[in-house]
């Protein structure tokens, strides 16, 4: 357990405090949590003046609690410190890894369980979610706790037990209740799909009594209903209409927010999002199919297949939607690999593993280092470029180690090489390359907020800002809740209305802005900020205009 915690910290801490707010979802969540602390209203969820009714309140509560604790501990400018809002995601990711290990322990040995947890912990997708202040890592923690409890209750019923300790039913239903508060129906949906498949497979439903469904459902209601009742009263029912009617059913019925993709997209993306677990899963796939009638394998397939198929069918697709089934894939992979793979299969897939791990990853890193100028950074520090050379070589060494051990059937050793490669990659890319000090072109919002604050006269105690062209949530989060999102003409009017004001004006609207502003000697261009939009990769060139205090 301590080993897993140490590995997860090595995987997830690089870049955790240094990465800027990543548009758009992360700063939207963080800003809504910040407004709860600013207003003292912990029922209504708002992004500036707009009701944010897409997700329940759970993630905002835990984020606000983390920031409040940070304030009490003396963290400077805690309300605008993004890593405090990320703490629940970090803890959720660690809990999900430990939950994967705990779930696997009900099915196999400690060695195999450790292999499963390591494979899952090192995947790119959970690493990304551990670094983002949003719902998915915490949601995944609830899924793994629920499924870890379910597997113990299910196999207890198969052994003929009719009554068990209350611990596992309590964990099961608590995880479902917390999951609902975090992301609505996803946790109960994953669990329900697995339960339905198991009931159909076994042609039995009587085993469900061991879950204590009566008192369990009542407990879920106790957890969820108080806040749900308050928000329904506050919004006059609009919360359900927006979250269920618009957000959930909208994604099922059609494409939302330009995130449409055909069926099969998640399978194609798996080779990237599940790196370095993906090649191991490919090796194990045939063995999983051959052993599909084994009770342990069948349970994991019941967890995996229905949820995966649903998300493949749903038109709206984002990589993290299938994250709740990644622990099942990791455990399936470990179960088969630790049971042994034929020499022929090992030799055949060794080349594939080398191609995927050795060829693509270091080449991609080299491409980023060579081609990132003008997109990621204005000038790449020589030290970072030189550090990239041994990193690429070490990555190659880790991958060769893994490939050789795969060929020999030593999959636990191969996994250690893959995890080492993931740690090395995270240390260099997240802990160095993508930090604002290196990838300055990505840190546009932070640079704008700093430039605006620096340009305002020291005597202005409560400066206010408007922005035209760049309306990213990260700018709202870092500048302030009262940031006015407007047009070039109205930004000029905003500056005319009072002193101690600033405006961020994107170059495409500057001509309209200056025409509307007219001759104003008290307004001047303090700085230009050039960079790349995190959301979409577009080029940004923004002028920072300020109006100083009127002189007598």
TrEMBL record:
Gene Ontology CC entries for this record: plasma membrane
Keywords (A to Z) from UniProt: Cell membrane, Glycosyltransferase, Membrane, Transferase, Transmembrane, Transmembrane helix
A Pfam family per the record: PMT
Domain of life: Bacteria
Gene Ontology biological process: lipopolysaccharide biosynthetic process; protein O-linked glycosylation; response to iron(III) ion
Topology in membrane: Multi-pass membrane protein
TM segment ranges: 83-102, 114-132, 138-155, 186-204, 216-233, 268-289, 296-314, 320-337, 349-370, 382-403, 410-431
Principal subcellular localization: membrane
Residues annotated as domain ArnT-like N-terminal: 6-231
Compartments where located: Cell membrane
KW Ribosomal protein (keyword) present: no
UniProt GO molecular function: mannosyltransferase activity; pentosyltransferase activity
PANTHER family noted in UniProt: MANNOSYLTRANSFERASE YKCB-RELATED (PTHR33908), UNDECAPRENYL PHOSPHATE-ALPHA-4-AMINO-4-DEOXY-L-ARABINOSE ARABINOSYL TRANSFERASE (PTHR33908:SF3)
Name used for this protein in its record: Glycosyltransferase family 39 protein
Organism of provenance: Lichenifustis flavocetrariae
